[in-house]
Amino acid sequence: MEFSEQVMVLRVGTFREADCWVRFFSPTHGLLTGFAFGGRRSRRRFCGCLSPLSLVHFRVSRGRREYHCLEEGALVNAFPDLKRDLNRLGMASNCVRFFESLSFAPDSMESAHALLLETLETLDRSVPDSCFLPILFRAKMTFTQGYQPDLSSCRGCGRPLADSGRAAFAVQEGGLYCPRCPSGAGHKISTSRETLALLNRLSVTGPREWADWAPSPQVREECVRLVDAFVQCHLGLTCDGNRFLRV
């Protein structure tokens, strides 16, 4: 098998004196590890391509031992401004760590690649809130992997929740209950109308729009609690600093 396409380089390591291994994400083949033999010395085949957080056009072949071999690459975007700013680099690293922890179905790889690319492009152009954009990225990525919650109406009575003051978010069910309806068993999180409005906007927007969002401290806190609980329940991942662990 051989293919040639733009991929996102996530991590790079070395083995032996001149060779590299590269962890990258392909929009058609998913998360792969390839080997660039002689990559540390070759300026012609891999000029500027073997750096983490880079968009690269690789030509990839399958070696005799069933591993992926990187034949050559062309740098498309190195995101230089992002890498010069430790704050933005930290945000990008957090998003990539979460991304690497996921398992992708074949029909979700292209959209996942597009979301990660748009996130890095946004961080390369602007300086969003350091503690909030990674939360939005986690939520959006989880929603696009088939776990989109229903935030429009009460699961009990079916009434629209746009005018409700607060609602109970049922983490396992992925839906809401208005104050009039019993919410049953399971983990619930009290959620304000402003937080619900933000999460609804998140469903129809991308990182380019998020960079300008400035929610109140209360909304940020509610979003963090809700997203962390939802990700842990449905994806089995919990955030531990800059790592994501299986629970």
Q: Layout of SSEs?
A:
Elements: E1 2-15, E2 19-26, E3 30-36, E4 54-62, E5 68-77, H1 80-84, H2 86-100, H3 109-125, H4 133-147, E6 150-154, E7 166-170, E8 175-177, E9 188-192, H5 193-203, H6 207-210, H7 217-235, E10 237-240, E11 243-246
Parallel strand pairs: 3-5, 6-8
Antiparallel strand pairs: 1-2, 1-4, 2-3, 4-5, 7-8, 7-9, 10-11
Helix pairs in contact: 2-3, 2-4, 3-4, 4-7, 5-7
Domain DNA replication/recombination mediator RecO N-terminal: 1-79
Keywords: DNA damage, DNA recombination, DNA repair
Function: Involved in DNA repair and RecF pathway recombination.
How many helices does DSSP assign?
7
Domain count: the total is 2
Please compute the radius of gyration using only Cα atoms.
20 Å
The CATH architecture name of the largest domain reads Up-down Bundle
The major beta sheet can be summarized as: 5 strands, mixed, barrel
CATH class membership of the largest domain: Mainly Alpha
Helix content: 25-40%
Q: What's the pLDDT, averaged over the residues?
A: 90
* Order of helical and strand elements: EEEEEHHHHEEEEHHHEE
> Any low-confidence stretches, pLDDT <50, length ≥5?
none
Distance between the termini: 36 Å
Beta content: 25-35%
CATH T-level fold name of the largest domain: de novo design (two linked rop proteins)
Order of strands across the main sheet: 1-2-3-5-4
Overall geometry comes to elongated
Number of strands: 11
Structural class: alpha+beta
Protein name: DNA repair protein RecO
InterPro entries: ARFGAP/RecO (IPR037278), DNA_rep/recomb_RecO_N (IPR022572), NA-bd_OB-fold (IPR012340), RecO (IPR003717), RecO_C (IPR042242)
Pfam families: RecO_C, RecO_N
Function: Involved in DNA repair and RecF pathway recombination.
